[in-house]
Amino acid sequence: xxxxxxxxxxxxxxxxxxxxxxxxxxxxxxxxxxxxxxxxxxxxxxxxxxxxxxxxxxxxxxxxxxxxxxxxxxxxxxxxxxxxxxxxxxxxxxxxxxxxxxxxxxxxxxxxxxxxxxxxxxxxxxxxxxxxxxxxxxxxxxxxxxxxxxxxxxxxxxxxxxxxxxxxxxxxxxxxxxxxxxxxxxxxxxxxxxxxxxxxxxxxxxxxxxxxxxxxxxxxxxxxxxxxxxxxxxxxxxxxxxxxxxxxxxxxxxxxxxxxxxxxxxxxxxxxxxxxxxxxxxxxxxxxxxxxxxxxxxxxxxxxxxxxxxxxxxxxxxxxxxxxxxxxxxxx
Amino acid sequence: xxxxxxxxxxxxxxxxxxxxxxxxxxxxxxxxxxxxxxxxxxxxxxxxxxxxxxxxxxxxxxxxxxxxxxxxxxxxxxxxxxxxxxxxxxxxxxxxxxxxxxxxxxxxxxxxxxxxxxxxxxxxxxxxxxxxxxxxxxxxxxxxxxxxxxxxxxxxxxxxxxxxxxxxxxxxxxxxxxxxxxxxxxxxxxxxxxxxxxxxxxxxxxxxxxxxxxxxxxxxxxxxxxxxxxxxxxxxxxxxxxxxxxxxxxxxxxxxxxxxxxxxxxxxxxxxxxxxxxxxxxxxxxxxxxxxxxxxxxxxxxxxxxxxxxxxxxxxxxxxxxxxxxxxxxxx
Lengths: 332, 332
Fold this sequence. Notes:
The structure is a homodimer.
Chain A: H1 3-6, H2 11-53, H3 60-63, H4 68-160, H5 166-257, H6 261-272
Helix pairs in contact in A: 2-4, 2-5, 4-5
């Protein structure tokens, strides 16, 4: 079943159908292009998101990475970055392997289709031109034959005319003979034109146009094959990176699993343990046994009350928990 | 290793550390919220894309779905819709299972932390108050003992004063005795206050504050556990829908694989084949054998030239390929 045989009289349909096929490719390319723009935009937003939440170098957040629950967040951001890279790859590969590839192919097909249709048109114009010649030739034959008949009638009439001279009769007969001869020549010409036309018409309907239509069919089938490949690439581009995306997601899950809350508590201890003993009992200062009275006015060696344990007092001299001063309650 | 024992003098650090932990949860919730917004936006754009390219009901595009390469594009759009639904599900589940859940938990933790810190503050204030009492009591004892000594010296001086009367001596001795008695009472009070303070201080450093710090540690570890679960959910939400997304992508690939270009060519034939034979040879009209001359002027039964095969002529009477008129070249 081919178009050349089955659709020999459906050139208009084939014209429209192949155009509609190219339109579909064009539409699909546009669709994929818009999809890649969405992917790029999505990836860009994800990049901005991870960037926004990534700690600045030497910041407080970076220092807090000693704690696994802080570090895990940074690990997730890192995995997100890899993840985003894969989304960018999807956009890029769709653009290169589908949009650019199909656009290039589309241009070739447009050229090819134009060529086939122009060949069909040329063949048709040639047949039309031959037909016009045939028509002219036929009309001339008809006209000349009428003239010849008229001349024959005229000769017959002259022959039966009692008043006609022999010369008149001879002249009319010659005229009729000449006319018949011309008409015969026109008939031969008409016959020859008809033969030429029929040969060309046969060539047109049984060889030339079927060839053009079959080439258009072949072109359309190649277009469909290429488009179908483009369809497959649309999903496969993403399927191709899915294992890596899966690995990124696994990495994020692992990062969550690796968080160790007990360990984070210990890290805080290791970082901030002063090593001092908790204050023992305040001793009794027995003035009645004559201790140095001056010392009772001095702040040294005298309990000054429980120190600012809750860190609300911003007076530095009272903040004994300041990591750098390393002064504990043992001064009491 | 627990904070209550090891970090007994690091209340300020514990305060800041637990606050920083809550800040991290808050930051993570914000991060996930922004991620869901990106996902929702992404899904919305994908929805708009498929909607834009889906054919209107009864449109030309819909009719062209008889061709597998057109139908495949619609199948891809349908799969894209399912795919988009999964992206929406990711956004929705992240919002519900991470953002809302952690925000709720965060409120509880904030309350709990406030409560623990307020308990610590209360205990400290109570100890400070007891200390002030102790200090006052000690100062009174010191002051009264000094007065008693002064009175004793005065009594001794009076006793050795040759001009002093016996009554003077007796009065001074009584005064000294009274002062000593008062001082002894103050000493007892100081001793009792000291005992009370030491008991409370011990309770403070060895029981109350460690309890508060350990509760804060426990709270922080619960926070970390919950946050780690939130980290795991971040990736698992997406991993959960990956098989379905994979199925959508498989569906798209299959749709591309199912495109059959040969079949599409046949569908066009079945749809548009006129069934007419291609025109045979144009017959010779021999006027010399006396055919009906009138017929040569009539358009019927006379070749009118090759018909508009390329569909460029918009004159309807010449468009024999119009599907509805079903008139072929056989009229020639």
